[in-house]
Amino acid sequence: AGVVGRKKDKVVVCRDLKEKIMPLLYSREDLEVVLWPEDRACERPWLLENIKGAAGVILVLGEKVNTEFLEAAGPNLRAVSTMSVGHEHIDKVEVTKRGIKVGYTPDVLTDAVADISVMLALMASRNVGETIDLVNRGLWPAFSWSPFAFCGPQLSTSTPNATRTVGFLGFGRIAKATLSRLVPFGVTHCVYSSRPTSKPDPVADAKLAKELNIQEVRRVSMDELASQSDVVFVLAPGGAETRHLINEDFLKKMKESAILVNTARGTLVDSDALAKALRERWIWAAGVDVVEGEPNVDQTHPLVKEPKCVVLPHIGSATIETRLAMATLAVKNLLAGLDGKPMPAPLIT
Ligand code: DGY
Hints:
- The structure is a single chain.
- The chain is built from 13 helices and 13 strands.
- It is α/β, with parallel strands linked by helices and 349 residues long.
- The protein folds into 2 domains: 9-107 and 321-348, NAD(P)-binding Rossmann-like Domain (Rossmann fold); 110-311, Rossmann fold.
- Strand 7 (189-193), helix 8 and strand 8 (216-219) form a beta-alpha-beta unit.
- Helix 1 (18-26) packs parallel to helix 13, helix 2 packs parallel to helix 3 and helix 5 (110-125) packs across helix 7.
- The longest helix is centred in the C-terminal third of the chain and has 19 residues, at 320-338.
- The radius of gyration is 23 Å and the shape is globular.
- The two termini are 26 Å apart.
- Bound molecules: (2R)-2,3-dihydroxypropanoic acid (DGY).
- It comes from Pluteus cervinus.
- This is D-isomer specific 2-hydroxyacid dehydrogenase.
């Protein structure tokens, strides 16, 4: 309001946020909203053309905010809002140099991703990928109920003195939410590995173990993480620093009955090494919501071809509640950034 005669700020929106969210932008008379009109990934040439002179942008994981993008945008750009908690697609150094504010969407997706992490652990251990495929192909009649067919290791236990150790590569909000969901399954121990630069905090670990009423929460080396865990959950950020942390060496050290779950970024896991580990039975099974090179993952991909791997197309945060919350936060971050106010979830201020 009150902008008669003033040039509107252009805002580019790379995905249609639909009727519940778009009005938050359209109701702002001081903004010219330019929306990628299709329900698929925004094409780079369209983005580079339309970002010219923009003051703000809302984008998602596939859209790289790099020098090319920033140069195309020009000096008007002051707010970038990504509808994601991950931010490896944003060149933080270049953005900071130009004084651009960046917002992201942490916290609101923690529950949804923790839920799907548990789901994938169960699906992988109980052969759900293989058995659903069999039913879908009409093969159930060929398999009558049989005592040991399709058995897998049991995630839960209520046997006295039995132990269950869950491991986390990365021990942030989503890892902790996943752990707390697994306590009622009978988990007794939690081991985790964190970035080498972060300070170990055994007091906080002991406090968490006490709160959850489990025997221990302990930071360990990558070797111990591999060898002690019944399930390893990969929940660390993506990017060059963490690329292929799960490789042949790690997978060879895991238990034969263990499960690997990746709900973070595909780049953390060497897909060929994981396919080999599954084929050669170094580990029991895997469940992945993310794959390096996605979305270009088809039936010929080694993990898709591997019956012991459940592959989902990056739907970890895809609940109605969560996606609405992410979209709302993305818009609020953008508007705050444009208005010169603190973003509700700032990444770069
Ligand atoms: C994120 O927000 O980074 C997730 O990967 C999207 O589900």
